[in-house]
Write a structure and sequence with these properties.
Radius of gyration: 14 Å
Low-confidence stretches: none
Distance between the termini: 48 Å
Number of helices: 2
Strand content: 15-25%
Structural class: alpha+beta
Mean pLDDT: 77
Length: 86
């Protein structure tokens, strides 16, 4: 039996179903609705992984993935600390 978890934001509705290996993201992110745009560096391996795992727009999937990950961090009550290599 699948258990559904739905999160909503101003840009996306994210449905996660346990027992199913996918997260379904519905939304219509546009530049008009966006507060800011991010220009972030990613490795070739990360881009390849995104292209392999995201069905549809990699830009939209990346934005939704960030939102989903932030909610997951909050749910687990953890944070990420990013620092440059020494």
């Amino acid at each position: 039996m699948d258990i559904a978890l739905t999160q909503s934001s101003t840009m996306f509705t994210i449905d996660t179903r346990e027992g199913n290996a996918e997260v379904v993201i519905m939304g219509k992110p546009t530049r008009k609705r966006a507060v800011t745009m991010l220009n972030i560096p990613i490795s070739g391996a990360l881009r390849a992984g995104l292209q392999e795992r995201v069905v549809g727009s990699v830009a939209m999937g990346s934005s939704a993935l960030l939102e989903w990950a932030l909610e997951e961090l909050e749910r687990q009550r953890v944070s990420i600390q990013a620092q440059p290599n020494p």
